[in-house]
Amino acid sequence: GGKDRRSGLILTIPLCLEQTSMDELSVTLDYLLSIPSEKCKARGFTVIVDGRKSQWNVVKTVVLMLQNVVPAEVSLVCVVKPDEFWDKKVTHFCFWKEKDRLGFEVILVSANKLTRYIEPCQLTEDFGGTLTYDHMDWLNKRLVFEKFTKESTSLLDELALINNGSDKGTQQEKERSVDLNFLPSVDPETVLQTGHELLSELQQRRFNGSDGGVSWSPMDDELLAQPQVMKLLDSLREQYTRYQEVCRQRSKRTQLEEIQQKVMQVVNWLEGPGSEQLRTQWGIGDSIRASQALQQKHEEIESQHSEWFAVYVELNQQIAALLNAGDEEDLVELKALQQQLSDVCYRQASQLEFRQNLLQAALEFHSVAQDLSQQLDGLLGMLCVDVAPADGASIQQTLKLLEEKLKSVDLGLQGLREKGQSLLDQISNQASWAYGKDVTIENKENVDHIQGVMEDMQLRKQRCEDMVDVRRLKMLQMVQLFKCEEDAAQAVEWLSELLDALLKTHIQLGDDAQETKVLLEKHRKFVDVAQSTYDYGRQLLQATVVLCQSLRCTSRSSGDTLPRLNRVWKQFTITSEERVHRLETAVAFHSSAEKILQECPEQPEAFNEMEQFDEIEAVGKSLLDRLTVPVVYPDGSEQYFGSPSDMASAAEYIREKMKLVSLKKQQLRQPEATTLES
């Protein structure tokens, strides 16, 4: 790293006691002399041969070897002699003798006298100088430089080959190129990093200060060719940038080819095995279980398609990303791939969705059909059971339940028709594109099945309706029968109540003839009401007979209702006749008594016959006696009118009037007796 006074480089050759290999030394000198630039070599070299630890013969050989290695570049050779110097005469004579032949000057000098020829600042400490030099550090840096130079040069060649091949090659050649051509033997990033570190080291250690002076660094740019490093780095960056672009283009092309390959895989599977799976699935099943099995099979098919649809989504995202950042030359191809992939996937997805909707509609249709069938079975079972209700209310409840079931069946059949028509519409819209073949035959089977189910349900519903009509008529007749029986029993109750009222409340006979006549008229109207009640009961019982004959059944209650009705009516008739007889007798009694009591005593000729008084007394006594007699019915039972106190009150009026009649009779007899005495 040091320089002589002519600015020539100083080359130091340290010799040791061991045997020195001239071949290795020659190679080393060749290497060292190849480091400086041509400009630097032109200034010549000063060679210091350190022979202090070597023998004269070795030193002589080294000096002579310099003639063969660097004869033109060497201007001065300084041989540093040891303290115990060789034979002065021999050494001086030898170099002087060879001076002309060597072509450079050779001097023998002690280490402490070397500064006469070279400045101390250009000598290392070994020769009493101040030049800082670390051979191992220089060697390590040199190795780094050599490695960088070798790797960068080799890398530049490889990158140039790759880049030039990419620029000149046709599209087909690039497609046929081997991937290894795009992989340099060393990592460009690593080489660039090494070069930058080396350049940084060179720039930092170009000059080092020492004792206020300036000394050349062993890593001087003339030795390590800092410009060469910079030039190599610039070339590397340029070629590496081009290489990165080539790699980017190849990566894009590779990615495009991979996408194209995956797109074709998706398209081929969807149009091949995927479509074939759908072609084999055309039925809708003939029951809920069959439709569910087809749905399960379809779910398996959808699961397989989902895997390919996931690939489609991923590919679509990749294509979209390439479209956003792609070159103009790739846009058309990318859009074509995207369109092809989307068309196939959407078409297949539409087929899957259509098939799923069709199976769902078929499942709903079969579910409604099964529910309707169960409703019809329940209605038929209800119609097949004979009706044996306890009363009209239970019949009404049963009839209401029957109507509700029939209405539910109507709604169920209407729902079945709607589901069936919807399913038929979907099937009619199933064109040949759906599965890639003509599906007319398969559709006809499905249509026939759907129409057959709806027709069968319609026939079953019609049969049930006919049976419901018959059952409704029968139940309505039974309701009428129970109603007639209930009303007939009610008529008996009413008639019994009329009889009871007749016996308990129809007691008074009236205070005079007019009042008694009014009571008699009211009684006749009362009897008319009873007669109407009796006739109503008879008509109801006759209606029950007709209904029983129509229903072919025996009434449970009409058998004893008619005898009860006749019995009560007979009792009422007897009681009514007794009441009429008493009222008529009372009318006769009151009329005769009132007539006698109202006649004037100045007309004695009117009472010529006393038989009238006797007749009135006889009628009164007869009426009083009748009031104490009970009403006797055909079955031997007896009933009195009112309570004893009520009867006593009624008889009291009769007795009062009989007393008046008797008093009148006595008054009429007194004048007659006086006339006879006189």
From TrEMBL:
<dbReference type="GO" id="GO:0043325">
    <property type="term" value="F:phosphatidylinositol-3,4-bisphosphate binding"/>
</dbReference>
<dbReference type="GO" id="GO:0005546">
    <property type="term" value="F:phosphatidylinositol-4,5-bisphosphate binding"/>
</dbReference>
<dbReference type="GO" id="GO:0010314">
    <property type="term" value="F:phosphatidylinositol-5-phosphate binding"/>
</dbReference>
<dbReference type="InterPro" id="IPR056804">
    <property type="entry name" value="Spectrin_SESTD1"/>
</dbReference>
<dbReference type="InterPro" id="IPR001251">
    <property type="entry name" value="CRAL-TRIO_dom"/>
</dbReference>
<dbReference type="GO" id="GO:0070273">
    <property type="term" value="F:phosphatidylinositol-4-phosphate binding"/>
</dbReference>
<dbReference type="Pfam" id="PF13716">
    <property type="entry name" value="CRAL_TRIO_2"/>
</dbReference>
<keyword id="KW-0677">Repeat</keyword>
<dbReference type="GO" id="GO:0032266">
    <property type="term" value="F:phosphatidylinositol-3-phosphate binding"/>
</dbReference>
<feature type="domain" description="CRAL-TRIO">
    <location>
        <begin position="1"/>
        <end position="135"/>
    </location>
</feature>
<dbReference type="GO" id="GO:0080025">
    <property type="term" value="F:phosphatidylinositol-3,5-bisphosphate binding"/>
</dbReference>
<protein>
    <submittedName>
        <fullName>SESD1 protein</fullName>
    </submittedName>
</protein>
<dbReference type="Pfam" id="PF24915">
    <property type="entry name" value="Spectrin_SESTD1"/>
</dbReference>
<comment type="similarity">
    <text>Belongs to the SOLO family.</text>
</comment>
